[in-house]
Amino acid sequence: MVRCLRVCATIAPGSDVGFFAKDAAMMQLADGIRRHGFKKWYERELLRGHAHLVVLIFCCLGLMMALEGATRFRSTADQLFDLMAVVVCTGAGLWALRRYMGLLLRAESIANQADCPRCKAYGRLELAASTSPASAAQTSEAPDQQVAVRCRACGHEWPIYL
Ligand SMILES: [Zn+2]
């Protein structure tokens, strides 16, 4: 399941596919866990994702209004304005959809790795002191981007992959 979500996050249009984007996402994950804890970080990611969904809904409404306005016979200036509104709403809506999918897929992928392998505690984790995000990003041996975390309940350490 985790593997499937990781593959989905890789091919999703909103996923950050570039190395630097993944690196930035890993830094953001590590920073978020350090500052707020995993559960708050996850909650914030879901809120960010759904904020993009709200933007998408508004773009759809704007697109429908612009299309309806374009069908009525009016001046050329009005039709050009409607056309511009269609282009802007379509572009912004596609961007919002891409961000929404990317944020949610990444958050779900990471949340599926938040169970402690030893004691099965969910989300009770903190950054492992041995691995800083900067050093993990520069490690060429690691095949994937990862953040080392430690269970607050039992102290077990494991990697979370982006
Ligand atoms: Zn544990």
Ranges where pLDDT stays below 50 over 5 or more residues in a row are 1-17, 133-141
Bound molecules: zinc ion
| Estimated share of beta-strand residues | 5-15%
The counted number of beta strands is 3
Structural class: mainly alpha
> First CA to last CA: what distance?
14 Å
Series of H and E elements: HHHHEHEE
Secondary structure elements and pairings:
Elements: H1 2-11, H2 19-36, H3 38-71, H4 76-111, E1 125-127, H5 133-138, E2 146-151, E3 157-161
Antiparallel strand pairs: 1-2, 2-3
Bound molecules: zinc ion.
The site of zinc ion (ZN) has 8 residues, from loops.
Tag the structure with descriptive keywords.
single chain; 162 residues; mainly alpha; 3-stranded antiparallel beta sheet; 5 helices; rod-shaped; disordered N terminus; binds zinc ion
Description:
The protein is mainly α and 162 residues long. The chain has one domain. 64% of the residues lie in helices and 9% in strands. Strands 1-2-3 form a 3-stranded antiparallel sheet. A hairpin with a 5-residue loop joins strand 2 and strand 3. Helix 1 (2-11) runs antiparallel to helix 4 (76-111), helix 2 (19-36) crosses helix 3 and helix 3 (38-71) runs antiparallel to helix 4 (76-111). The two termini are 14 Å apart. Mean pLDDT is 82; it is low at 1-17 and 133-141. Zinc ion (ZN) is lined by residues 116, 118-119, 121, 151, 153-154, 156.
